[in-house]
Amino acid sequence: MAEFKLPDVGEGLTEAEIVTWKVKAGDTVVINQVIVEIETAKSLVELPSPYAGIVQGLLVPEGETVAVGTPIIAIGDALDGPMPEEPGRPAEPAEPAEPAEPAEPAEPAEIRSADIDLSNPAASGSAEGESLVGRMKADRGAERRARRPAAALQTQAAFEPTGSAAPVELDEEDESDGPVVPATAAAPAAGGVRVLAKPPVRKLAKHLGVDLTSLTGTGPNGTVSREDVEAAQGGGAEVVVPTGSTDAGREWREPIKGVRKMMGQAMVDSAFSAPHVTEWVTVDATRTMEFVERLRGNRDFRDVKVSPLLVLARAAMLAMRRTPEINSWWDDAAQEVVYKRYVNLGIATATPRGLVVPNVENAESMSLLELAGALNELVEVARSGKTQPAQMSGGTFTITNVGVFGVDSGTPIINPGESAILAFGAIKKQPWVVDDQIVVRRVTTLALSFDHRHIDGEKGSQFLSDVAGIIEDPASALLF
């Protein structure tokens, strides 16, 4: 029996939420098979199994946040036997007597989670010959399998249908037929039979403040249904109003965790450590829109998505040549300004999990076609929630495209570790004066926030003016 502990997936993160289990008790897994999807403070990460064998139990339910080093799954072989049927007897399973001379090779020693190289699954080898870290089983010698502590049995028993365990708080939005779980396990309902309800029903009851133990289920095997909860909420059944709530049916609470928690703290740290200054400029982007249309018809760009954001990103890279201060950073601890010869271009992306800022490394050295491909891939991966922590660190300058929401512009907050951020507003048809004539043009607004400790107004204005000039006339990029 081996317990896989939650590893540190990088960036010094100390905890993660179990989002989705890809396996269940009784499944057979092989080394490097994805077994669980976790959410850290920065991204969703898929974890491969460091062991081959049979899943003996899932030690942490979906939706629960645990610290690094916490056992999350138990994997063994057929000799380990089934999990205990009655949680009231958490005694250790009896081990078979060991023969004087083993008739077959001894079981391999357990692999420590610290030895697992999650970034290099290819180093694992096959289940017969190598472990996840590439060591031969024969090289480790024969070791007796560790006895299983009673605490682990109690933890696993919590996920058995007949077990007695603490309530499992699942945040399920799916209304499909999922497993029926105990509504309360700490204390049985009347007659010694616990109330059963599916996760969506339990969530509804929690939001409405309905005590499930006071209901009589009308579903199969006495399962409490959605109709039972709704009838109780409006039919005189005992309703428990959560503390601090004036109307349980009109408001609800969501825990602050994962990406949103990290983003919130980062914005607070930035807003109260760097003195922000924001400057605005309104630009005629008609020629940029015409240039984008020409690029879309170019055969070299037929396989990539071309948008005005591409032109703005390239314009920012060129404008930094005149004002390198924009791509610097105030190191408060060392009392130095760090100038960077490379640009890791961050693109603020809204996702269902919150705002993330992955970056394109060495964007300044890319051609327009290479930059277009990199931006496309970055946004697609971010929206799918698969951006890795390493892709969201080391940024030097950020663009936030608020125009996709129809917003004219805003006062963006600088990403921690950087000194400036550029907001790109919506491009709209507006009346514009050209050669003393009022004509309809495509107009947008750019807003630059910068750290006024080391970027003077002159430098910020110069950078913003250069970017606006390229947006107004893309041909002017030849001057840089």
What's the short story on this structure?
The chain has 480 residues and is of the alpha+beta class.
- Measured between the Cα atoms of the first and last residue, the distance is 64 Å
CATH homologous superfamily of the largest domain? Chloramphenicol acetyltransferase-like domain
Helix content estimate: 10-25%
Give me the strand/helix succession: EEEEEEEEHHEEHEHHEHHEEEEEHEEEEH
Total helical segments: 9
Q: Strand portion, in percent?
A: 15-25%
Structural class category: alpha+beta
Whole-number mean pLDDT = 76
What CATH architecture label of the largest domain applies? 2-Layer Sandwich
> How many individual β-strands?
21
| Sheet with most strands | 8 strands, mixed
Number of structural domains: 3
The geometry reads as elongated
Care to describe what's here?
The longest helix has 16 residues, at 368-383. With 480 residues, this protein is of the alpha+beta class. Strands 12, 15, 16, 17, 18, 19, 20 and 21 form an eight-stranded mixed sheet that branches. The protein has a four-stranded antiparallel sheet with strand order 1-8-6-3, with no helix packed on it. Strands 5-4-2-7 form a four-stranded antiparallel sheet, with no helix packed on it. The relative contact order is 0.10. The chain folds into three domains: 2-157, OB fold (Dihydrolipoamide Acetyltransferase, E2P) (Beta Barrel), CATH 2.40.50.100; 166-255, Dihydrolipoamide Transferase; 258-479, Chloramphenicol acetyltransferase-like domain (Chloramphenicol Acetyltransferase). The chain starts with a strand and ends in an 8-residue tail after the last helix. Helix 7 (308-319) packs across helix 9 (457-472). The protein is elongated and about 80 Å long. It contains nine helices and 21 strands.
